[in-house]
User: Fold this.
Amino acid sequence: MIRKILNSLPFRKKKDGDIDEELAEDLADDLDEGMTDAADDESDVDLDDLPFNELPIDVQTKRLPKRPKSRRSWLSKMLIIMVFLSPFGATAVAMIPVLDPETGWRLFHMGGPGATVTVPGTERELQEEIARGVQDVQDRDRAAQQSGNDDSSGTPQSAEDIASDLEGVSDLIGTPDDTSATGESDAPTPEELAALIEEEGSLDDPIEPDPLRPAPLPGLDEEGSFGRIPRIGDDGTTPFDAYKRPFELPEDVPVVAVMLTGVGLNPQRTETAINDLPLNISLAISPYARDLQTIARDARAMGHEVFLELPMEPVDFPLSDPGPRALLTSLSEGENLVRLEWLLARFPGYAGLVSRQGSKFGSLDSAIRPVIEFISRTGLMYVEGSGNGVASYGAQLASNDGTPNAIGNVIIDEVPSRRQIDSQLAELVEVAKRNGVAVGIAHSYPVTIQRLRNWAFRLGRQGVVLVPVSAVASQQVTPQSADEAEAARLEAEEREAAAMAEQAAQQEDSEEPAETIEN
Assistant:
């Protein structure tokens, strides 16, 4: 390469024009020797003696001072790690209710009202309950075996022997000396208890169907604006009498009735309620369910009497929305009656209507009175589903018109937990023993269906009878005299006028322009 450079230089030329090659070769040799010496000299140079800017790049990089790791650096790394792990954490939290419902309930209801009482029963409590049930079955089998042995030997079994055989179920019925819960007169004798256990059978035994008559029956419906709606037959037969579950009230025995609402909204829950609940539990079908006629037909084929839910405006509307085509106070009487006719035409075979929400609509005379009069003309039963145990204005109007009616005393699953449901069922029994009649309103939650089945299985041991809701018709609300009914009407009108004045004042306040500097 050096020779190429030298050949390009204008060296002294010979006379014939050629380059002096000897001179070029000597110069090239000298340059090669010089560069070799320079390289040797560079290798002998001490890098510590050179300035920093003359050092090689790799040496400068190594000699640069190291920057210490700051707190910000650690925070940045932690933030990156947290961002990377956040999807996995969110997935884990979302899986908690699936893997452990109790922990999920505590987590998502932490700090809420009643969080300490809304936790479902723990696994340990469930195991204890199962153990008690197993012990119950074992004690019953042992009692039956002992009874068979006594029968074979010809010696009758004494009451003391029966009581000793049934010692394992004392926690379910109370001890003979314990009168705090049911009273001394309500405690069954050992003979009665043995008969009850033999009559009850096992909790796992399937419920035998007791079909009701298929609906609709001829002459009990007529054509309406949206389909066939109920009416009183020409012979005076009402849809209530035709479609209710036949039952005769026992004398001098407290009775309870349970209305399960929301049936039809979930197919699996609906099937469980129809097949697993006692036939004396009435089912209220939602008008917003699908395939209503099939649900009503299956329920009646099993033996349940069915009712139709009647959605009405609550006090906190629209925060609580009763649903489409609900009866509202903002609509005229004609519009509400048209909506009522649409609801009545949803399916045939129901014995009555159950009000859903309706705390505001049912308290205004101009709103509820036309509805009650229409229901009276159709021959249906009206059930007040508020669950506060107080006769609403609508229930009182129905009682005054002679329409079959009932009011709910207890909301069974207002808090959907095993403990609260069992507590409310016990309260329902106490109300029945105190008043003779009690009606419970429940929702079709899985835990509610399960607790109702267990409660109804042992209800006879408490001296209370489970009856259909239709069996307690007109047992709770006393009809008013003409003067009392007129006074109640005037009071309802005053209440309605005050509510309208308050609503108008609120509207005026909302329409006033805001005060500004210009005003």
